[in-house]
Write a structure and sequence with these properties.
This protein is an alpha+beta fold. Helices cover about 40% and strands about 15% of the residues. The longest helix is centred in the middle third of the chain and has 11 residues, at about 25-35. InterPro entries: DNA-bd_dom_put_sf, HTH_17, SinI_DNA-bd, WH-like_DNA-bd_sf. This is Helix-turn-helix domain-containing protein. It holds the Pfam family HTH_17.
Length: about 70
């Protein structure tokens, strides 16, 4: 994989995990509970890095939104 991910291409679930440094379970929870921008193509999830960057900047991945049980 190239060191620089281009903002105009779609990346896979594994690539977004590597990009953000989190596990698959976390990404799936963020899609379901926090509205992480993602598109399902057949059975596969795809992501635009520009959309992910914007979502993170707006606080989408912030721990402050975690529900304490």
């Amino acid at each position: 994989m190239p060191e620089t991910i281009h903002n105009d291409r779609w990346i896979s679930l594994q690539e977004v995990c590597d990009y953000l440094g989190v596990k698959r379970h976390t990404i799936m929870r963020w899609i379901d509970q926090r509205g992480m921008p993602a598109s399902k193509v057949g059975k596969l999830w795809r992501f635009k890095t520009a959309d992910i960057d914007e979502w993170v900047k707006k606080g989408g991945a912030s721990d402050e939104r975690e529900v304490i049980k």
